[in-house]
Amino acid sequence: MTEAAIPCLATLALGARVRGHLLVVEVERRRMGSRDATLLTLANGSGRLPSAPLWGEAGNRVTGLTPGNVVEVSGRVGTYRGRRQLEIETIRTAPKELVDPRTLLPALANAESCWSALDRWRAGIRSSGLARVTGLFYDDPAFRRLYEECPASPSGHHAALGGLLQHTFEVASIGRAIAAVAGADRDLVLAGALLHDIGKLDAYTWSGPFEVSQAGALLGHVALGARTLDRRVREVADPVCSAPELDLLLHLVLSHHGRLEFGAAVEPMTLEADILHYADDASAKSASMAEALRNPANFTGSARLSSRIWQLDRRRVYRGGGEFSADEAMPLKAEQPPSRG
Amino acid sequence: MTEAAIPCLATLALGARVRGHLLVVEVERRRMGSRDATLLTLANGSGRLPSAPLWGEAGNRVTGLTPGNVVEVSGRVGTYRGRRQLEIETIRTAPKELVDPRTLLPALANAESCWSALDRWRAGIRSSGLARVTGLFYDDPAFRRLYEECPASPSGHHAALGGLLQHTFEVASIGRAIAAVAGADRDLVLAGALLHDIGKLDAYTWSGPFEVSQAGALLGHVALGARTLDRRVREVADPVCSAPELDLLLHLVLSHHGRLEFGAAVEPMTLEADILHYADDASAKSASMAEALRNPANFTGSARLSSRIWQLDRRRVYRGGGEFSADEAMPLKAEQPPSRG
Amino acid sequence: MTEAAIPCLATLALGARVRGHLLVVEVERRRMGSRDATLLTLANGSGRLPSAPLWGEAGNRVTGLTPGNVVEVSGRVGTYRGRRQLEIETIRTAPKELVDPRTLLPALANAESCWSALDRWRAGIRSSGLARVTGLFYDDPAFRRLYEECPASPSGHHAALGGLLQHTFEVASIGRAIAAVAGADRDLVLAGALLHDIGKLDAYTWSGPFEVSQAGALLGHVALGARTLDRRVREVADPVCSAPELDLLLHLVLSHHGRLEFGAAVEPMTLEADILHYADDASAKSASMAEALRNPANFTGSARLSSRIWQLDRRRVYRGGGEFSADEAMPLKAEQPPSRG
Amino acid sequence: MTEAAIPCLATLALGARVRGHLLVVEVERRRMGSRDATLLTLANGSGRLPSAPLWGEAGNRVTGLTPGNVVEVSGRVGTYRGRRQLEIETIRTAPKELVDPRTLLPALANAESCWSALDRWRAGIRSSGLARVTGLFYDDPAFRRLYEECPASPSGHHAALGGLLQHTFEVASIGRAIAAVAGADRDLVLAGALLHDIGKLDAYTWSGPFEVSQAGALLGHVALGARTLDRRVREVADPVCSAPELDLLLHLVLSHHGRLEFGAAVEPMTLEADILHYADDASAKSASMAEALRNPANFTGSARLSSRIWQLDRRRVYRGGGEFSADEAMPLKAEQPPSRG
Amino acid sequence: MTEAAIPCLATLALGARVRGHLLVVEVERRRMGSRDATLLTLANGSGRLPSAPLWGEAGNRVTGLTPGNVVEVSGRVGTYRGRRQLEIETIRTAPKELVDPRTLLPALANAESCWSALDRWRAGIRSSGLARVTGLFYDDPAFRRLYEECPASPSGHHAALGGLLQHTFEVASIGRAIAAVAGADRDLVLAGALLHDIGKLDAYTWSGPFEVSQAGALLGHVALGARTLDRRVREVADPVCSAPELDLLLHLVLSHHGRLEFGAAVEPMTLEADILHYADDASAKSASMAEALRNPANFTGSARLSSRIWQLDRRRVYRGGGEFSADEAMPLKAEQPPSRG
Amino acid sequence: MTEAAIPCLATLALGARVRGHLLVVEVERRRMGSRDATLLTLANGSGRLPSAPLWGEAGNRVTGLTPGNVVEVSGRVGTYRGRRQLEIETIRTAPKELVDPRTLLPALANAESCWSALDRWRAGIRSSGLARVTGLFYDDPAFRRLYEECPASPSGHHAALGGLLQHTFEVASIGRAIAAVAGADRDLVLAGALLHDIGKLDAYTWSGPFEVSQAGALLGHVALGARTLDRRVREVADPVCSAPELDLLLHLVLSHHGRLEFGAAVEPMTLEADILHYADDASAKSASMAEALRNPANFTGSARLSSRIWQLDRRRVYRGGGEFSADEAMPLKAEQPPSRG
Hints:
The structure is a homohexamer.
Chain A: E1 17-32, E2 35-44, E3 47-50, E4 54-55, H1 56-62, E5 70-80, E6 83-93, H2 111-123, H3 128-138, H4 141-147, H5 163-182, H6 186-195, H7 200-203, E7 204-205, E8 211-212, H8 214-235, H9 243-255, H10 271-294
Helix pairs in contact in A: 2-5, 3-6, 5-6, 5-10, 6-10, 8-9, 9-10
């Protein structure tokens, strides 16, 4: 039995049967009426579902669970106050060595094509200094292993395993397009895309539910990224770049949020830093918009106008019905870059 | 004698001789001490220069000039209070039929390659409805003639003859790159790029110095663009699209400034409208940044740090010295898109 | 039996009996404990009330209802968790041809006096061009029929059938007063008042619960109003005004929200556009304030200080106790304009 | 010789002769080349004009002048650097007892009709308490004498002798119109209009050029107005109103700027305070707009579009050409309220 | 039995017994299922706790209670939906003359040391005028009695009996430190600290749960403070200071919120007013931060990172674990000022 | 001859003789009329003064000067257009080895007393970890040498040699006072004060006129300070603190501007970081206010109300006349901390 048996927690119909592994995301103990009950929130890569209350013996049995545990569950989808819930029939802890919790977190599956594009672009970098600095990270297998897992945010845009890599690919791709028309140094924009979010490796944790780490909260991923770059460059015996060159790269990292009030430590002062910011913004915000349009919870039934969406500054969105759909199916071209769609 | 004889008004050295046609941009009459003087501001495509005061007979002779006139001038570059000025020796009005004032305005020379890219992309549009609506404008020679002249703004980004076409190309190019990674409808984004600024044809005048027209001031180019699109679609006998389709395109035009406070009539509600806004913003703002970096007036001597620049929200900018320049010259690839550089 | 039997849903006392027609505004199906229940929200012109849960057979019988249906109900006002609810005893669908849903929506009853004032003022317009343009709408019976029904907003100020007409009267009345002291063109202000919100006819729907239409969401009532005016003026064979005159009227419509961040497409550039904005603002915001003061839900018991009110930018309000009440009753004068009070 | 001999300083043509009394507004001493010169700025009710430099003996003779002095001048309008200046031929100090400096300040001439409207409205107040409190000021001849002189601001809206009275009339007039449609207590709104700016009597000085007083700077006219009302009410032996009534009136004064960031000490909490704010705003801002439209310095030649105007938040304005002018002259009706026009 | 028997309502463990006097803070009557229940919120100086529902006879018995009553209670701490509640066994009204409600409100116990520091500093004032004005209040036993009870806010910083006195001490202490390094008049800063919040005596009520009074809502504590100072100074026969001196003190009171948008009637114009604002801000905001760090409700379990905290502008806070704790215990020095800790 | 002979450039009277060393701050070459002239701006610690134009031979002789040179000058104070200027009689370059340019920059003279207070407070630090980290800098003579010279800003608050040390002392002094009343860890606040601005050593240059360095512009002093601290701590062989401790100190540095829009990389999350921000703000802003009050250029003559001051957010300030001056002179106490006054 695998989690493949639970196709999509977010859309399972009322009454559907559920069998397989799920990640424990929350454990709550409540007194309901005169009895104590335990409520779990369970998740897999497709979404999350609260359990119906577990009473008495059943409740006691799950009391020891903590967020991050994996359980093997069978049950049925029920409803309470209009919200779907999982009516658990059997539940037991899955041995840690059998199931990796990360298989139960939301994940983006494009790693290969993202790496392939990024590495191809890196290979075209014309300055050996830039190639060396980005190589300190992107030629390091340990870095790649972490980087292709890390989410781009705990609960915002690209909040999935692999989200940071997908976002990095998008920023690089958009940034190159802007650099091309703006007459900017496209290699410097690429280097900025590759380095701008490396601080997120220290700022987030993703072995269980995605969280901000203590260092992430106290320093922020922007300053953490600058620190990681500074430390890594200084660690290597042979200098990979000069001090002013390092400052220029640190400027890209520190300014990529564009404005102080959005979290930039300084505002962009070079054309490439400006472009990096626009590319970062376009990737992150268009991902949030696309997700808002996909999320059925934002719409009543088949309505095309959503309710107001907090994450989009309280905008409402409109999901079209293919007003201008293609007149006939056209195959995607081979050179099509990997879309997050 | 042609204006080619005046290579670049903005950088002519002290003492250089000037001979050729110039555009009259301002005419001012002043009493200086006990005498009346006339001061002209003259321009060609490379910049502008004030004249030294013209006294007595000479002053009287130029009194009838108005902004938009073309004059044939000979003189020498002098200086007054540290500012360069043109010491006019001879000046006479050029016959209107001999010199088109537009040859003396700043211009971008990429029209052909911009048209070529835009037309190639239009040819790939998969919805016949979208192709018909954009064709109403882009297959109309009269529209093309105006569109390839119009500046993208009177004194902001792409403020040159042909600036609007260059900007349109950039928005389409960047918008396609964002659409590709965001899984958006790339044809709708392209249509948005093609239509978003058509209101500028009515909002600006460019037969002489660039100005905002009366309609441009009272209605703004955003609402003017929506009006132009609405009128044009309703003019044609056979409907080119349905009413909801028209609304979707009008939404792209009306929302392309992104937020109400930046002049959007409504905020973007579709993924494609959002992407159009990011592409428009990236093109416009990176152009302003690039221009600020190129403008020697923003820097003292060879300083790399500029003074505070009003047009960039009072940011200072940094012009690098090729910190990470290419290790060897690499030819631009043939498929390189036309850069404004 | 008529809805007159249900005097005011918002203030009916606990235990009061209810008999008559009500509008279905929401239908929710919930699992409560181990049973499924249906909850309705019912409304008439005086307010809305949730039903107690309907179980089993009763619940099934109302499952087919949708918002916009009219039902004939008998029951009693009960309470649950401190909130009043309608304990339904009998309920059945009312035949569509018997009851117009609009009789069950909140309505303002001043149409006649509003029309009378507006038509009298229109008759005094001194420019035949202005008279013709406003007449295109206000002499058209179909326009008048729609206009006197439309709410001024779905859930904000004057959110009632007839609210738009009442608001239009108020804007005209206040605008004339400002124009008088400011030496402005009072006819142009009047025309602005008459035309500024005509886009709301397309932006809202009011055959059932008030909603924003698809066009209303995508284009906004400001741009829709400009489009309606532009189309109507161009439809008539004999031109009713010149192009610059039309631009001036479009400017009034497009700028009436005063500032970009409040939804104006352009900011007011004429004295009359400025005055129209102040009058619109004073009518809309004083209506919201008056309603907040009338709404008992904003106050605890007989307290004079309200809780913080979201719609008034989180202000608290104070309802006085006639501190300076009139020393003796004075009859309202005959020429008193129609108040919304 | 009287100041009537100088019709309008702001529009006198080049070469026009000037004879009469003028107010000294500024005195500046400068070294020009190798000589010392004195420059005066002179004004009368119609505007202000700088003098040409006065040299040697002439300069010495005017050295003792200070702002607020009145001089008798003859001369001619000349020009320097495109700006008009007064070329003084004779100048001598006018005896203080002969010319009141106030006759040389800008003034609004509507006092009588403003008083008449305000007093008529006051007579209609239905609460004896309100009548008594407003009467403490408006039945006091000393108050009336000061109040009809005071400007409404030193250099903003209604910046003229009598400006405060004109503004008060406008606020009352607009406020009554809003109160009528909003179902508010029109007497309380009237009382608010009458009292809201009484602090300006202490906040400004107008015996010479208009200035903010020391108390005006340190306390602001809002808090000063509250203090004046509080002190006056407590001075009279028989109480004119109760403590809660006084608080309600103080609330009107303290909140009339509407929002904290605009200088309100508290934000409006009653319908009448809200209306007072809208009326105050409409009077002040429409006056600024009207003045910007009248001021030729905002326009180049006969252009209809102005330059950006600092006082209007950098908006540009449009001065129309009677697009919709009346088809025939219509006499103003007798009951027309006094316009500032 | 006294309230000392209930050590800390906020942290009592599940199952703990409760006996003693509590203050009734809220009374709510709800229909739960088919029965009516009454729910109380009870408090003492250490926090507040909701009761379990009281049914039938028990519910009827407590129906007459109103906020501000004191009751004698016995019961046990239970839980419902994860929230602790008080399961009441016996409850009866305590005679008003036996228990002062104020003994059951949160209180700060530093009054003596605050008075002692403030009086010592007052004794050092070098200007007799300043000493006289502050003495009008601080030498008045009635003022001191009220002042040492008043909270500094109803539910924000120092929201406890005695909070205003503690805050005043803090502002004076911090203000003196800033004045010392800034070369400011330390006595004027002290006078500002002593007078800046005297308006709170009229703006709040604290005989029961802390509330904003009617005058406090309508006028605000800033304008009320200015009024109190103005009235008190004018009441005394012998003038204690000159009019300009009074204005300077009123300026301190009116400007102490620093900026208009934070509620200042005017912005600080003197060095001492500026310093008073910084000291006020530092005292108030560091108190809110300290309280947020102490409040276990902001943290999940023993987590060091809090959830987002509304009162701190949605910041998250970090409670450290003595990272840099003292290497060895060091006794607090005798001259240590009284800390709110 | 020494610069002591030029007591105060800012206040020297017209006609006063000047002899001594001055720093060249600006060199400008202008064509005036038909001749070329050179204009210098010269400065010493007391202020700056422009020179009268130097013509012909004199002009040529000074053409080679650049900002940062020291010259020996004799001359007289003259005036031009109401502005004082230095009429140079003799001028020659001073040998670099004879005069240190820093003696001619504005300087604060409190270094000794600031060091003494800071070192005394450091000696009281109770945690050996904190003592070690701060000692890495404050026990290093090279650091102290630089730190006691560095200005706290190029042209804002404490813009003088030694300004950073004075500011650090003030922040520590104020921070300790806040920590004392807030129950915070006073040693951590002290460490924050000592470390918060160490990035300014790299962000500014002060060997001539104060400037922002390239690194200062690209990275900002906040991120530079974090980098310096991180590098220094990692350089030493024996760890001086743990990684979480370092994060806590970096948080103090990165958050000391308080809010993102004021340049904080993250917002304060601990009580000590909050207090550090308030202390930094109070020191910097009260210094700007004090300087604005001292600067005669902000006032016309002896006026007490200033013009609007850009650096204080366009506030006007009021300079009192000792309204509440001490009744008799009182000697400053010995333990008085060093004031910047």
